[in-house]
Amino acid sequence: MRCIAFHFFAACIVGGCLGTSSADAASLRRTSVLHHPQVRLSDLFNGITADQDCDLGPAPAPGQSLTISAPQLQAIAQQYGIDWPEMSELAQATLTRASHTVSHDDIMPLIVDGLKAKGVSDSATIDVTNFSGPTVAAELANSPRLSNIVYDAAHGRFSAFFSITSDNDTQSFRADGTVSSRVEAVTARTDLSAGQIIEQSDVEIAEIDSRSLPARAILDPADIIGQSTRRAIRAHTPLTSEMTSRIDLIEKGSPVILDVSSSGLHLTASGVALDSGAQGERIHVLNPTSRMIVVGQIIDRTRVAVTPGTTPTPADFKDLRSAGVRPQKNI
What we know:
By secondary structure, the chain is mainly beta. It has helices at 2-14, 41-44, 70-79, 104-116, 317-322; strands spanning 27-28, 31-34, 38-40, 45-46, 55-58, 65-68, 93-97, 99-101, 125-128, 135-137, 145-152, 157-166, 169-180, 182-188, 203-209, 228-229, 244-245, 255-262, 265-273, 282-287, 292-298, 303-306, 313-314. Helix content is 14%, strand content 36%. It starts with a helix and ends in a 9-residue tail after the last helix. 24% of the residues are buried. The mean pLDDT is 87.
């Protein structure tokens, strides 16, 4: 501080305004907050007229203070013809440069716009972690400028790089943070035991923070219904494809019941599966009586619901033999 005050005093002696005409008695301003880059005579004394006022030297750095001691104040008053009747050896003046610290609110609009330009949705949650912005002169601080933003979409992380100009000096700084959104994923409704066949009642849809969503998470219940758990799973755990394995409820060649619904009518017929499949999957089924092949969705281990709108196709010799049905003999 003494070194700063010395340089300031030297600047007052060699620079600034030369001499001024005496004016009415002035009084010392013991504390002043500066909103300009130069210390002015009126920052030290009250009662300075406009034609007397002039720059004395550089102001302290933003947020910093400078104390002017009694000898320095006396020398300044004498040099510039200030009538200071209260001159005292104990007098001192403290000058503080007004400052502004770049805050979270200053940079968030820029981060949001930058991330949206990279494809981040409006519904995403953007968080800045452990941000500490630079301190700049309050009167000269421009708005921060976003120089670049690096976004890792796979891990939901970003780094934003900024610059801000103050006192003809440009400072660079960065802010790091995360991007998350709420994703609808399939979770276990209750505890599931190892080897359990998953049914619709065993799962539910829950909104999960994308940052905690596991890789290969199941988003559609249809992708997991009818599969078997590889291990025990606790309730409310997000399910992944690695937690389950596909189990064929119906094996190729197995007898099944065809459920046919049309125009309010419900009919059943016997059939033979031409494919193996898990619950919810579509397979080809032969109707041995009509010798026609239909496509249906597996309901359980014995039933297949014929897909509405599909057209039955005649079975060829290979299909009939695969189903154990004797082909008709030509007469």
